[in-house]
Design a protein that fits this description.
three-stranded antiparallel beta sheet; alpha/beta; FAD/NAD(P)-binding domain; five-stranded parallel beta sheet; 20 strands; 18% strand
Length: 417
């Protein structure tokens, strides 16, 4: 197992200071390690997640090589050759566990921004103190964007949030954490080959959630109550002016409609399949309130905005992958973790085999199935070699933290619905 940094590297070095998991502690488990603390309904900090992963590494006793960055992977005979650090490794099979969140997905229009405005990504952001004076434009309203926007607003900085497509979700529903409902009602166990639009499922924004002791809902209404100004999607930058799309009310209405459908599903499940569970009465959130006259442009030369923070998602980094296994958008071509190259597999990608694939608790089922196919492939290779001449050597690129070049096997900004 190859890891570019240390165990749990991204959780130790690539998270903002106040970040917590979106999943409650009781659900944050790895094979052989469950939560045994005093706060099962709480949410782990990034430091606590790092310790969980480190504990798993110790229990698993995997042959882990840290400080080993994979620089290239290419075909070599019937197997693969990896250039890792100063070494070259030959392997019959390879598992890519480098995740989908290696690089911040910053739009091309970032190059048009005035030089006097600081640009930060969520990877680089740590806390409000690192920002210069002035307001902040946060671009993106999924989990990362709403959490950072709330933190910056509470620090006393005026915040403008550019909102595009988003997934609205309450922190609790009918007396239970909303992710309990996702787990119990079977949403997370939906398989990739059962979904009508798998591509869509793999690219959905992460839900607007935050894990706090108060178990508070952090949606756009909550942000507006804090004083955050809501504007439409950042469409372009022209002559120092940030231009935002109209139709904010339509964006809000669509997110509200999807939320209603999800809550309806939970209610139907509670009536038919909940095996006698007792719940509070059904409830509904108030519609998202749109500003009366949202701004359509913002002068970035006036000094009103000192920082633009890109919370526009992440993408994988496969620059080290010297194989024709990527689509036109740079995504790995695979069928449930089986890559279109003999002996090459993947784990830790959104909806790899199930909706829960990128959750801490969700990786185990995927791993068992993918590794089952891997071992079957190795057995077939051994038989073809007439008694096993030549080594059967699997390699895992990414290690227990899911890294080859910087991404997460277990991503706190999760795909849910």
């Amino acid at each position: 197992m190859l890891e570019r940094g240390e165990v749990a590297n991204s959780w130790r070095h690539e998270r903002w200071d106040s970040l917590t998991l979106l999943t409650p502690n009781w659900l944050s488990r790895l094979p052989g390690i469950g939560y045994d603390g005093s706060d099962p309904d709480g949410y782990m900090s990034s430091a606590e997640v790092a310790e969980l992963i480190a504990s798993f590494a110790a229990v698993a006793r995997a042959p882990l090589r840290t400080g080993t960055e994979v620089r290239s992977l290419r075909r070599s005979g019937d197997g693969y050759r990896l250039r890792a650090g100063d070494d070259e490794i030959q392997a019959d099979t390879v598992v890519i566990a480098s995740g989908a969140c290696n690089l911040a997905a910053v739009p091309a229009l970032a190059a048009q921004l005035p030089a006097g405005v600081l640009q930060l990504t969520a990877h680089a952001y740590r806390n409000p103190d690192q920002l210069p004076d002035g307001g902040v434009l946060v671009v993106g309203a999924s989990a990362t964007g709403v959490q950072i926007a709330a933190e910056l607003q509470r620090s006393g900085r005026p915040v403008t949030l550019a909102v595009g497509e988003h997934v609205r979700m309450p922190r609790t529903y009918r007396g239970r954490d909303v992710l309990w409902w996702m787990h119990a009602a079977g949403v997370w166990d939906q398989r990739h080959d059962e979904l009508d639009d798998l591509t869509r499922a793999r690219t959905l924004p992460s839900p607007q959630l935050v894990g706090t002791p108060a178990r508070a809902t952090l949606d756009l209404n909550a942000l507006s109550a804090l004083g955050v100004e809501l504007v439409g999607r950042l469409a372009s930058v022209r002559d120092g002016q940030a231009l935002f799309s109209g139709g904010l009310r339509n964006v809000f209405s669509l997110a509200d409609l999807k939320l209603e459908r999800l809550l309806d599903f939970f209610d139907e499940w509670a009536l038919s399949d909940a095996a006698g569970e007792q719940f509070a009465s059904p409830e509904r959130l108030a519609p998202t309130l749109a500003p009366r006259s949202p701004r359509l442009q913002l002068d970035l030369l006036s000094g009103e905005i000192g920082t633009i923070l890109w919370a526009t998602g992440f993408r994988p980094d496969y620059r080290w992958l010297d194989l024709p296994v990527l689509d036109a958008k740079g995504n790995l071509l695979h069928d449930g973790g089986v890559v279109d190259s003999p002996g090459l597999y993947a784990l830790g990608l959104p909806v790899l085999r199930r909706r829960k694939s990128t959750f801490i608790h969700g990786i185990e089922d995927d791993a068992r199935e993918v590794i089952g196919q891997l071992t079957a492939g190795l057995a077939g290779s051994a038989a073809a070699r007439l008694g096993g001449q030549g080594g059967l050597d699997p390699a895992v690129v990414g290690g227990v933290d899911g890294h080859a070049g910087g991404g997460d096997l277990i991503d706190p900004v999760e795909h849910v619905v």
